[in-house]
Amino acid sequence: MATRPRKALGRTVGLLTGLAGICAVAAEPPERGILVINYENDLFAGEDRYYTNGFRATWITPPRPRRGRIATTASAIPAFPAHDTVRYSYSVGQNIYTPEDLNSSIPPPDDRPYAGWLYFNLGVGAKTAHRLDRLQLSLGVVGPASHAGNTQREMHRLANATLPQGWNSELRNEPAVMVSYEHQWRLLKLGQDQGWGFEMSPSASAAVGNVFTQANLGLTLRFGEALPYDWGPPRITPTLSGSGVFTAADDFGWYIFVSADGRVVAHNIFLDGNTFRDSPSVDKKPSWESCKLAVH
Predict the structure, then answer these.
(1) In DSSP terms, which residues pair with 55 in a beta bridge?
(2) Cα torsion at 197, 202, 241, 21 (round to 10°)?
(3) With b meaning 16 or more CB within 10 Å and e meaning fewer, what string describes 90-129?
(4) How far is CA 250 from CA 24, 26, 68, 78, 121, in A?
(5) What is the CA radius of gyration of the chain?
(6) What is the pTM of this model?
(7) How far, in Å, CA of 119 to CA of 10, rounded?
(8) Which domains does the chain show, CATH number per domain?
(9) Looking at 93-97, 231-235, 288-292, which range is the least confident one?
């Protein structure tokens, strides 16, 4: 997913729409937990700009008793399901952002600055048949310590793509802290578990921190055969909602999904620049954004 920054003042309102391919789904995850790997790169869509690369590895535990501060905090949220068991998630990831012009050592003032984000996420989630709630704490770093420049240069050498020339102008090092909460629910589900099915799932989320401070409202439509009773494919922050675990009603299931997401952004460090130091930045403007075709 790519966002072109343009000059404007005030908050940003983004509307995300898109078609995201076909999902092949495995059976119920084993009780020992599951490892989920996400990789996104705009080179797959023939582009090389803005949000250009994302990687995340997540370990999701089997259901466990509530314990620890993050679970206690989640229990204090009125909307969070009052379950005795929850699933914990542990993620490590890296996001890379670049301007459209990769040949200039200093990007134009109206183009997105170079930036990288290396993070660790600790999350807790609870679900019922009709809803999913997740609370997540993200800790990491933005700037050269994220090693985003090294990652992108090596990836471009392997792909024989244009080498970016402006990483010396990237955002400065800054600790990155963010807390986010997400709520998804099933508004409509039609069809049989073993046959054709259709599902409509709205979502609402919010994040507060020096990386993103924003609120989202979204909707996902799914249609397929042996429609799995999960919450859609996993995707990398700050894009659309999705499930961390695939669960299927049969040995094999597939579906096509369409998602739309409206986002109000008060702060985005990758556009606004460093919080406590002078750095490259660009003014925000209400914009339309599109999701790329994805296959899972």
Answers:
(1) 39, 94
(2) 40
(3) ebebbbbbbbbebeeeebeeebbbbbbbbbebbbbbbbee
(4) 12, 9, 35, 34, 31
(5) 19
(6) 0.81
(7) 27
(8) 12-290 (2.40.128.140)
(9) 288-292
State the CB neighbour count (10 A cutoff) for residue 208.
16
Query: Which of 19-33, 137-151, 232-246, 270-284 comes out lowest in average pLDDT?
Result: 19-33
Q: What percent of the chain has pLDDT over 90?
A: 39
d(CA 194, CA 103): 53
pLDDT 10s digits, 191-210: 876 788 899 999 999 999 99
Structure-block tokens of residue 152: 């992108």
Closest by CA position to 12, among listed 107, 106, 112, 95? 112
